[in-house]
Amino acid sequence: MTKRLILIRHAKSSWDAPFDDHSRTLNDRGRSSATALGNYLKMRGDCPDTVYCSDAARTIETTERIVAAMGAAPTIHRIGKMYNGSAPALWNVLRKAKGDVVALVAHNPGIAFFAEDLVNKAPNHPRFLDYPTCATLVCDFPTNDWAEAVSRSGQVIDFVVPKDLNQ
Prior knowledge:
4 helices, globular, Rossmann fold, His_Pase_superF_clade-1, alpha/beta, His_PPase_superfam, Phosphogylcerate mutase-like protein
């Protein structure tokens, strides 16, 4: 059996409001991108059973918009340690994950390093290594248990950024 991971960087956030970084919400472009991504994932049939997201406002809003566009009802966990989490912190979340199709919604730079460490071969996409806002990696792992997932074992199924979605 395989497990599927959907790794999403939060959508574009606003710098206009005088909030602290943790409280920043999405801007209009980010809202549009998150909805477009949700529609795209639904079309592909990549709807997660469980979503783990940072507890920052922009990751929560990204998650809510994606899930609403999919018309799905996954279990959603907000995890404080994912806020600006490192690749090892994200591995820790993944290895404790429940579900066959799991989404993680997090931040750069940790998510970019994590994505690179996940896959056995990077996708042929010019934006993979910098992992821009709302970038999304879909990859499969040859395991029955997330606790057994190991570095460089993920098989890339898809990688997309908002500009690829023709919003």
